[in-house]
Amino acid sequence: MSDFARIIKKRKREDFIFNIIGIICTLIGIVTLGALIVDLVMDGLPRLNWQFLTSYPSRFADKAGILSAWVGTLLIMMVTTVIAVPLGVAAGIYLEEYARRNWLTNLIEINIANLAGVPSIIYGLMALGLLVYQLNLGQSVLTGGLTLSFLILPIVIVATREALRTIPQGIREAALALGSTNWQVVRYHLLPYSTGGILTGVIIALSRAIGETAPLVTIGALTFIAFLPPSPIQSEPPYISFDWLWSPFSVLPIQMFNWVSRPDREFAVNAAGAGLALITVTLALNAAAIYLRYRMRKRITW
User: Fold this and answer.
1) CA atoms of 65 and 68, how far apart (whole Å)
2) In 3-state terms, what secondary structure has residue 172?
3) Using one digit for the tens of pLDDT, what is the confidence trace for 16-69?
4) Which of 9, 42, 146, 149 could form a disulfide with 83 if both were Cys (CB 3.0 to 4.6 A apart)?
């Protein structure tokens, strides 16, 4: 009995030590991140004003702005979301609920898992050879959106599959026993309960895509651009235009890279302001996804 009590005491001591180590590591990460954010805010917040948001880049630091960069970021993320999210969710549903378990499925699953960890520059090289040189799409918004779609597609697929796996098998069996088809099971039972997990994966994927620089530089995104793509909404019929898909572009990370590479200290301040704008856009996208997830969960609960 004393040996048993001694073992329990040893295990509790090990758990206590592990908790202390975990808390210390967490605090180190939080403090470091907080220090970086505070430094970024102190440098960039005075520069973040309406003139900075509505001006084009300039060789004069006090006149330079991020208008073309943040507009390009929003357009690229819109194309990425429209392409990657439906394809990734559909592929995840097929692999998890429809595909037969054989060597081909296993090969596909292994490749998807590996692609989720491939460095982003590899996707840029692939897009340069396939989209720019072979398909002649040029250095356009469409090319940038497709490149980032390839980048986050494996992440969305894996997140969708993991969300579907959390649903008890009994729900599937009960629905099938009542005469539901496979699609009805997915549509009315699996997707409503897995939406929260899927949106979490989408948030993570889009947060990674919005900060990528290497693949966009590889395909030829501009570091200096003093014009905006054509507006998607026109004042004349058919009122919707897709000419902006073929327009050259720049994004906030590339604009920041261009500024920090200059020797003038004022451009580093501009880069800090652009960093704050990028963080704001990222948080806004995440907040929208979290709100949608909350609404969907609330609808299921009630």
Assistant:
1) 8
2) helix
3) 899 999 999 999 989 998 888 888 888 888 888 888 888 888 888 888 888 888
4) 149
Q: Select from 177, 145, 131 the least CA-distant residue to 72.
A: 145
Q: How far apart are CA 175 and CA 186, in angstroms?
A: 10
In this structure, what CATH number is given to the domain that contains residue 292? Answer: 1.10.3720.10
The rounded distance, in Å, linking the Cα atoms of 274 and 45 is 10
- In this structure, the answer to whether residues 248 and 191 fall within a common structural domain is yes
Report phi then psi at 55, rounded to 5: -110, 150
How many independent structural domains does the chain possess? 2
Which residue reads 């090289």 in tokens? 125
Look at 19-23, 167-171, 234-238 and tell me which has the smallest mean pLDDT.
234-238
Distance CA 141, CA 131 (A): 12
Helix, strand, coil fractions of the chain, as percent rounded to 5? 75, 0, 25
Nearest to 70 by CA among 91, 49, 51, 53: 53
- 3 state SS of 89: helix
Instruction: Count Cβ atoms below 10 Å from residue 214 Cβ, excluding itself.
Output: 16
**Whole-prediction pTM:** 0.84
Q: Which domain, by its residues, includes 30?
A: 2-45
Amino acid identity, residue 239? Answer: Y
Q: What is the distance between the alpha carbons of residues 231 and 240, in angstroms, rounded to a whole number? A: 9
Q: Assess contact for 222 and 249: CB atoms under 8 A.
A: yes
Indicate the SS3 state at residue 240: strand
Residues 56 and 188 in one domain: yes
Whether 20 and 114 share a structural domain: no
List the one residue out of 245, 244, 256 whose CA is nearest residue 281.
Answer: 256
Burial class (CB in 10 A: 0-12, 13-18, 19+), 65: buried
The answer to whether residues 128 and 171 belong to one domain is: yes
